[in-house]
Amino acid sequence: MKSIKLRSIKIENFKGAKERTIEFGENTKICGANATGKTTIFDAFTWLLFGKDSIGNAKFDIRPLDKDGKMIDNLEISVEAVISADNEEYMLKKVQKQKWVKKRGTNATEFQGNVNEFEINGYPKSEKDFKQFISDMIDEKIFNLVTNPVAFTSLPWKEQREILIKFVGESSDVQIAEEYGERFLKLIPELKSEKADSIIKKYAKSKNTLNKEMIEIPARIDEVSKQLESVDIGSLEVEKVAKEVALKKVEDDLAGGTEKTEEINAKRERVMNLKFNISDISNKEAEILMEKRRNAVSECNEVEEKLLNYKKQADSITFDIESAFRQKERAEKDRDKFADEWRREKSSAFLEMKPFPEYTPLPELTEDDLVCPTCGQTLPKEVREKRISDYEERKKNNEECYQKKKAEYEEQYREDKEKFEKNRADKLKLITEKGQKAADDVRTYQKIINDKQQELESVNAEIAKCEETLKEKKETIDSIPTVADMSKNEEYQKISEQILVLEDEIEEMSKETVGKTELEAKREVLRDEISDIVAKIKSADDTKVRDRIAELEAEKTEVGQKIAEQEQMIDLTEEFIRAKMNRISSVINERFGGRVTFKLFEVQINSGIRETCECQWDGRTNMSNGESIVAGMYICKALSELYEVSCPLFVDNSEAVSDGRFPDMDCQVIKLFVSNDKELKVEAQHGDTKIRKAI
């Protein structure tokens, strides 16, 4: 991972900062009241690197203002920073000067714009070379994302989503579907050639076409049904009988019949009236059957619609259960992880104090030390006394120094141990809080799972009821005959027998007459007309109409089944998209510290999927200022890992976050605090050493 750190920055005449030099540590805290120049430091750094302020604006005022709010001219604006990139230090400098040109023929000067000058390690550079150096070191967009906690969430949601998807890596829809076993087996052949969205569009288009057909079928049934009403078989029968009467009259005339002819005509009139009666009976029975079928089909459609709604509800609940189960699994992992961390931290112990080295006294003063090393004579009394006095002083100092160092050693050990114990207690407390939160989440998600499973059982029970009811309704429809069975109608059968008897009698009586030739032509015409009427009656037989209605009803059922199949494929594809999005969400959300998650899709009212990107804290989008900052820091940390780069993280408004809530970062952190200090104060930490300074 590439590491970039800001070691120091020197600012001259930049915005409200006349002259300011700041040394930075691994962790730096800059405190001051509002408008004292905290954000100016961040702005100066980004202006040096990219010519923009800390929020990415290229057009912003950097020139100091006078007491009247006017820009002060003829001042050089300078920002100089020492940075390290992969342990190599660089001095970067940018100076902005004003260009003034004297007008010809006057002493007045005219402003011609600003000129920027650049340096790297003290060597002048062109603007092009300077920008190229910065670009080679760090991409501007990446720099903004990993140095500013609010940069990522300020992007349009589509850009946020595109960046987050990079955490997932390359995985085809087919590979994802195969991970779920048989769940999406039916969908895999189509995913090999088309995207999920295209598959939904395909089946939605087919469903729309089928829906149009479904809408047209009832109209076609009504149109065919009208034939039952428009064809008056009884009238045709009357006309037929009238023709037959006329024909028989002709035949009687030809036979010269008198009384017998009148009797025959009377019988024929009786047959005609009886046929009127039998036609009315048949039509009434047929209408009863049609009404039964219409009611049964309507009830069946209602049950089918109810069943479909219950199945969609079951799919939605199943999705919620699976989502809650995954959340529970993550919470369980976190709980177990924090439990392990707690045990490891609890078992950690401060190293036992090593014994301080034994005291080594000075060698005893001997007589040899009190004689002259040159001549061997005893030293004069004052010299001897001075040497003995110096020895005793050295001996005393040596012992005191030893005791002091030993005491300091033991005191330092006690301090280090106390610090260790305090840090361990703080860590245990934090780990316990995190573990408790994870355990609470496990219980919460388990309750959701239990509640949803009960709800699913209830819905499945309703589905079973609907399926049983639907089966019964379809059996009822199948049991309704398309043609009325008149064999059990006593009145119909009685009248039919009367007609047969009369027609037999008429036929026997007609055989006894002898035809004549004069009326044969008229007789043939009447016979042809009767044949035409018989053909019309035959073609208008309502049995064929009812058969056609039955065909249309069957077609309606078939189209309904096809619609259900299209909806099943749409639902399966949408379920796959949800599963895919859940997988993506799970992979992504694991990278953001647990409490920061992203909602990458939402289920619409029609059960469809809409892409989105919403940052959440503990499942909420409405975050406090402090929560937004901490969430942004987690995001910066994850993005640093993604882009494999570590940069200084500027945390503005840090006072909104309590110290215990700041996440552990793998980068240099510069916190900007609002305080009551009228002048900026800097606290830079280097290892265990803190340096405090007013600037």
What are the main properties of this structure?
14 strands, five-stranded mixed beta sheet, alpha+beta, 15% strand, seven-stranded mixed beta sheet, 695 residues, 14 helices, Rossmann fold, elongated
Short description:
It contains 14 helices and 14 strands.
Describe it for me?
The chain has 14 helices and 14 strands. With 695 residues, it is α+β, with helices and mostly antiparallel strands. Among the domains are: 2-139 and 648-694, Rossmann fold; 351-441. Strands 1, 2, 4, 5, 6, 7 and 10 form a seven-stranded mixed β-sheet that branches. Helix 3 (140-147) packs across helix 14, helix 8 runs antiparallel to helix 9 (259-347) and helix 9 runs antiparallel to helix 11. The protein is elongated and about 195 Å long. The model has no long low-confidence stretch (mean pLDDT 82).
- Kindly name the structural category: alpha+beta
Strand content: 15-25%
Largest sheet: 7 strands, mixed
Mean pLDDT: 82
Order of helices and strands: EEEHEEEEHHHHHHHHHHHHEEHEEEEE
Q: What does the overall shape look like?
A: elongated
Sequence stretches where pLDDT stays below 50 over 5 or more residues: none
Number of helices: 14
